[in-house]
Specification:
CATH architecture of the largest domain in chain A: 3-Layer(aba) Sandwich
Strand content of chain B: 15-25%
Largest interface: A-B, 72 and 65 residues
Number of domains of chain A: 2
Number of helices of chain A: 12
Oligomer: heterodimer
Number of helices of chain B: 11
Number of strands of chain A: 24
Largest sheet of chain A: 9 strands, mixed
Helix content of chain A: 10-25%
Helix content of chain B: 25-40%
Strand order of the largest sheet of chain B: 4-1-8-6
CATH class of the largest domain in chain A: Alpha Beta
Strand order of the largest sheet of chain A: 14-15-16-18-17-19-20-21-22
Distance between the termini of chain B: 120 Å
Structural class of chain B: alpha+beta
Number of domains of chain B: 4
Number of strands of chain B: 16
Shape of chain B: rod-shaped
Radius of gyration of chain A: 25 Å
């Protein structure tokens, strides 16, 4: 019986060095043919229904050493000819575990085609996304490690795409409880692309130390938990710490999303596609649901997502969220995708939200409008609330919403974090009298200071009940 | 002295004497007749040889070793029909010519059968394929019979080819069948496309079993929701959906391409939605010109006409001024809702496939790239275009909701202060 193993993108530098091993009833079977993206094996004659175990591991040489970016282990049970083999179970290794966990059925990154004559079978591997976290682990995750709380932490990875499409790199944070959950859903957050410095997402992000640092900064920016302490280096302070003269660098946009994710208690993988060229190429298309399910499959392969032993993870529900300038990319994806592609669509002051109501009404998603801006939140939420087709599936954060005419003092009282942020600029809160002008970080004075706070509060903010917006959005979502 | 070829006649003294037309001991010539050597052991040999010539021709007594009337009558017939003796001249005894011809007939019957090559052709389910033309390189041609077997008389080892056209015709449509099949055993497996370029070496009396495989399935988990009904254009492909699994049944044929398209789902709105009449709505008193407003934009928003601003004001818009809106003023999106509906959604092409290429991946070790591409396409069906009726209905819902707010709602608000950060963009 012939066994052929073939994988996509075999010439990609992350997949060029593959280790494929096959055992029949525990005895190793040597390959009869080895080529780029393909290996063939001839299984010896057998009796009964022995088990064939296939292991495929990609181990590229990376900056002077070899690292594993993907390992797939699948068992097939052979049948007497001409019956085809049966994909029996596959194994994943959750982070930190000392043994593999068995999952029933076929691995989500494997295709399987038996010949009609029981004379062999062909296994196709679909390694669209692989784990590049090990590329430069010190540089890549050190910034995040420095800025994590001591509380519960997620499994964080940088996944890299191998088929040349975009996004090339995606930062994923998955709660450890997802390693034994029947269903883990996927929330994609399209952050606002930055132009200073420009966001770039290319292969060099894994090959060049400076660029790797940028990936690390990105993970830290959104997942890290900065402290409200002016004495810290600027990168470690929260956004509202008083700057010492110079303009604050872009990376000081710390949003503690990991905390929010973990506090929600939900089985949701948070994925952050790297923006590039001022947008989210690739993610802003109808491919986005496909990309998210491919990411889910990769997280299953890497052990971050697993059903209880012996089970099979349920297909994920998909959610998509965007912040500010990430909005147009998200709406482009939602418009182009199937109406039922997303279970949740979250708009954190997402640009052009108010113009999307009719389009969003045609989807089956639950909508969330978060923030305080007049056009992107208040008008948009108002329009959605009046749309009969959206009845019962529109939400708003803060919840309950403050009056549009609320003064900064009202807002400060409404939120512990507001008070905290205000204290970063004026001391103490009791000395702050709206509408007093404040010294901004760029030295100008403007009355609209509160909007600057609120802009950041969209994501990292909290309500009077103390829940971060992202936590609250997750908790009240349709995610399981 | 005549030499017998048949084993049966060899060494028989009486038959040798007859063949040599030897004199009989009692005078005359040696013969077998009713009166001479009637029950000699040679009689039974003659009877067997006669039965080789004409099986079943001794129905009464069979080869009983007695040269009676039945045997004599048969010899008479033999002489007339086989030796060409005139009926009037026939003597119903066994003479030299009769023995010699019977010996030849017997020798032919004793000889092994003429060498013939056998070719058996079945499909992957083990079912016989009839009518498949099998050709040898010496020019001989035979078609498989109802048992799927063709026999060719070959002078020696030859190269055989099977005609792809007749094989395809014999295969028929298998797309409703599963992709599994019989055990291969020692049979040669070949796809229809490979028949044209494949020769099978075969000895003159050897047997060749050929399995023509044409069906395979490709399965993939759908990574995006399926919108619409799959339909195949061209032959050789069919998609079925089971839960979240898409199964593409493929049948190789003549190398043609097939496409799977998704016909748009039926409209979710049964009857065309009608926009509510606007006469019930009292337009707002006015609109405060915002930063960025243009004549064309305001004309479009309130009158559905980019050139209609002159109905709102006699001068270009000035920031902060209040425009008086005419009774027919409506929000901009209403104008687009009442525009003619666009064409109904068109079918979306899901994937195109050449089944023969994929069979070659599975059975001939061809480059698997087409298979990888097909898997990728199968996983990601395209979404349907928006149904214009749905769009219209959604806009009607929004308009109704807007009208319910009363005249002052929705316009005249101050734009928010720009809240963008300067170094950290939106």
């Amino acid at each position: 019986m012939q066994l052929t193993v073939s994988w996509q993108n075999g010439s990609h530098f992350l997949l060029a060095k593959a280790q494929v091993s096959v055992t029949l009833a525990g005895a190793p079977v040597p390959p009869t043919s080895v080529a780029t993206g393909r290996q063939e094996f001839t299984l010896p004659a057998f009796t009964g229904t022995p088990t064939v175990e296939l292991t495929v591991e990609f181990l590229p040489d990376f900056i002077g050493r070899s690292m594993s970016v993907l390992r797939i282990r699948q068992e097939y049970q052979l049948q007497p000819a001409p019956l085809p083999p049966v994909p029996l179970r596959y194994f994943v290794r959750p982070p930190g575990a000392s043994a593999d966990v068995a999952q029933a059925g076929a691995h989500p990154m494997l295709g399987f085609m038996p010949t009609a004559l029981g004379s062999g079978f062909l296994v196709t591997v679909r390694p669209t996304y692989v784990d590049a976290t090990g590329a430069q682990p010190v540089v890549l995750l050190r910034p995040l490690r420095k800025m994590r709380t001591t509380g519960a932490q997620a499994n964080v990875r940088v996944l890299a795409r191998t088929d040349g499409g975009r996004p090339l790199h995606v930062i994923c944070a998955t709660p450890p409880s997802c390693t034994s959950a029947q269903a883990t859903d996927v929330l994609c957050f399209l952050t606002a692309p930055q132009n200073k410095p420009e966001d770039v997402d290319d292969d060099a992000s894994l090959m060049d130390a400076t660029r790797i640092q940028r990936l690390g900064d990105y993970a830290k920016d959104f997942l890290g938990t900065p402290r409200h302490d002016d004495a810290l280096p600027r990168r470690d302070r929260d956004h509202f710490s008083r700057a010492s003269g110079a303009r604050i660098a872009n990376e000081v946009l710390d949003r503690r999303w990991e905390d929010a994710l973990m506090a929600s208690g939900r089985h949701v993988a948070l994925v952050l596609p790297m923006p590039s060229n001022g947008g989210h190429p690739g993610a802003n298309t109808r491919e986005l649901p496909v990309i998210l399910r491919q990411l889910h499959a990769a997280l299953v392969a890497l052990g971050d997502i697993a059903a209880p032993s012996g089970g099979t993870p349920d297909p994920p529900l998909l959610g998509v969220a965007a912040h500010s300038n990430g909005g147009p990319a998200m709406f482009a994806a939602v418009r182009a995708a199937a109406a039922s592609a997303f279970a949740e669509i979250w708009m954190f002051e997402a640009k052009t939200a108010a113009a999307q109501t009719d389009m969003l009404a045609l989807t089956s998603a639950r909508l969330l409008y978060a923030g305080y801006q007049q056009s992107t939140v208040l008008e948009a939420f108002d329009g959605a609330s009046r749309n009969a087709r959206l009845a019962g599936r529109v939400r708003r954060l803060p919840d309950p919403p403050p009056s549009p005419k609320a003064t900064p003092a009202d807002l400060a009282v409404s939120s512990p974090l507001f008070t905290h942020m205000l204290e970063g600029i004026v001391t103490p809160a009791t000395a702050w009298r709206p509408p007093a002008p404040f010294l901004l970080r760029d030295g100008r004075t403007r009355y609209d200071e509160r909007f600057v706070f609120l802009h950041q509060l969209i994501v990292q903010g909290n309500d009077r009940d103390g829940l971060h917006f992202l936590t609250k959005a997750l908790t009240r979502s349709s995610f399981r | 002295m005549f030499e017998f070829q048949s084993v049966l006649f060899q060494g028989d003294g009486l038959l040798e004497a007859i063949a040599d037309d030897a004199p009989a001991p009692g005078g005359g010539l040696t013969r077998i007749s009713r009166t001479q050597n009637r029950r000699d052991p040679a009689v039974g040999k003659v009877q067997l040889a006669l039965l080789d010539w004409r099986p079943g021709s001794l129905p009464l007594h069979g080869p009983d070793g007695d040269y009676g009337d039945e045997t004599a009558g048969l010899v008479r017939t033999f002489k007339i029909e086989e030796l060409g003796v005139a009926p009037a001249a026939v003597i119903d005894d066994v003479g030299p010519l009769t023995v010699q011809r019977l010996d030849a007939i017997r020798a032919a019957a004793e000889a092994p059968p003429i060498a013939a090559a056998t070719v058996a052709v079945v499909n992957q389910y083990g079912e016989s394929l009839s009518g498949v033309l099998v050709s040898a390189d010496d020019g001989s041609v035979a078609a498989t019979d109802e048992q799927g077997v063709a026999q060719l008389a070959l002078a020696g080892p030859s190269l055989l080819t099977l005609d792809p056209g007749s094989a395809l015709a014999a295969l028929g449509d298998l797309l409703d069948r599963p992709a599994d099949g019989v055990e291969q055993g020692t049979a040669i497996v070949v796809t229809p496309a490979a028949l044209a370029s494949t020769s099978f070496p075969l000895g003159a009396s050897e047997r060749l079993d050929v399995i023509v495989v044409a069906r395979m399935d490709v399965e993939a988990e759908l990574l995006a929701p399926l919108e619409g009904a799959p339909r195949t254009e061209g032959a050789g492909a069919r998609v079925t959906i089971e839960g979240r699994t898409a199964r593409l049944a493929l049948q190789a044929g003549d190398g043609a391409m097939a496409s799977v398209v998704l016909d748009p789902p039926p409209p979710s709105v049964e009857a065309p939605a009608e926009l509510p009449t606007l006469s019930a709505w009292v337009p707002p008193d006015g609109y405060v010109v915002q930063e960025g407003d243009t004549e064309a934009g305001l004309g479009e928003r309130f009158l559905g006409d980019p050139d209609g601003f002159s109905a709102l004001s006699d001068h270009p818009p000035v920031l902060g001024e209040t425009l008086t809106l005419p009774p027919e003023a409506v929000p901009g999106w209403v104008a687009s809702a009442v525009a003619p509906l666009p064409d109904p959604p068109a079918p979306q092409t899901w994937l195109t496939v050449v089944p023969d290429e994929l069979l070659a991946v599975l059975y001939e070790g061809a480059d698997p790239q087409p298979l990888h591409e097909l898997e990728r396409a199968l996983q990601a069906p395209p979404p349907a275009d928006e149904d214009p009726l749905d769009v219209l209905a959604a806009r009607a819902d929004a308009l109704l909701a807007f009208l319910s707010l009363g005249p002052q709602a929705g316009v005249g608000e101050q734009e928010p202060v720009d809240t963008e950060l300067e170094t950290a963009e939106g």
